[in-house]
Design goal:
This protein is an alpha+beta fold. It has a single domain, classed as NADH Oxidase (3-Layer(aba) Sandwich). It is built from seven helices and four strands. A four-stranded antiparallel sheet has the order 1-2-4-3, sandwiched between helices. α2 crosses α5 and α3 runs antiparallel to α6. The protein is globular.
Length: 177
């Protein structure tokens, strides 16, 4: 699919069909996500993939507020994280600028962008959920303390057709010199 069309076709989906996502599909998506640039090629992004129906239900019902629990019904769940205090820090462990761990979050965001676009190319849809209980996710999926949990991506087959939201005018977001 042409990139512009792919970018325009991707939508946040909040209702998923009862159709399973396979490990092979997720592996292909993650391989593409790994192509995203990262600070000094450190590649600190991590993925915790919940495919089994039983485990998905347990995570959805204990780690999400009710609206995200409902919005992720029937979807595979992908918890994204990054290694803390790695990218954006010098060899002495000091931040190289005011962003500090923000660079790890930036790298994770780049990978997640590749992830959701590859998913769309494969006919899958996504919802990026930032409202979740990180402590409960950490416990449920045995995520190490040295990793910062980013978002949870719902991944599946849409059971709705969301409309394209209005985008801001270019003059509102870009200043040319």
């Amino acid at each position: 699919m042409e990139f512009q069309k792919l970018a325009e076709a991707r939508r946040s989906v909040r209702k998923y069909a009862d159709r399973e996502v396979t490990r092979e599909q997720v592996e292909e998506i993650i391989r593409t996500a790994q192509e995203a640039p990262s600070w000094k090629n450190q590649q600190t992004s991590k993925y915790y993939i919940v495919l089994s129906k039983e485990k998905r239900e347990a995570v959805r019902t204990t780690c999400f507020p009710s609206f995200n629990e409902q919005r992720s019904l029937n979807a595979a769940l992908v918890v994204t994280a990054f290694e803390k205090n790695n990218v954006g820090f010098n060899e002495n462990g000091e931040p190289v600028n005011e962003l500090g761990n923000g660079w790890g979050c930036y790298d994770l965001g780049l990978q997640n962008a590749y992830f959701i676009l590859k998913a769309r190319e494969l006919g899958l849809d996504t919802l990026i959920m930032g409202i979740r209980d990180a402590d409960k996710l950490r416990a449920a999926l045995d995520i190490p303390e040295n990793e910062e949990i980013g978002a949870v991506l719902a991944l599946g087959y849409a059971d709705e057709e969301p409309k394209k939201p209005r985008r801001r005018e270019l003059d509102d977001i870009a200043k040319f010199y």
